[in-house]
Amino acid sequence: MEKVEFLTACDMLKVDAMGGRRMLCQTLNAEFSPKGIHVAHILIDGAVDAPDTLGKMLGAEQFQQLRDTRGGEKDGLMLPQKMAETYFHVAQQHRSAWTHELDLRAFTDLAWWNH
Known about the structure:
By secondary structure, the chain is mainly α. It has one domain (9-114).
């Protein structure tokens, strides 16, 4: 028999908040795109290889362990420089082909709804 998982109250709050943020970006886009202002909703879905944030949250030892198991060539942590390149690309797009929604996720990660 297949295991069925249900969303917890915390999961539902996260989904509601994410939906609200997405709708806000769509509303801002509808208002500002005719004025030439590019609004993009970019979702960062995963762990970022950042010692100043994730490293401080986890502590030095756990962060290094995470880097050893998922970082580097394993592509399990998002690299800030590569994320910045993606943001720069979106900011430089021609308005005939604007990106409005984008999910950033490490190659080896499942989407948040598949956890």
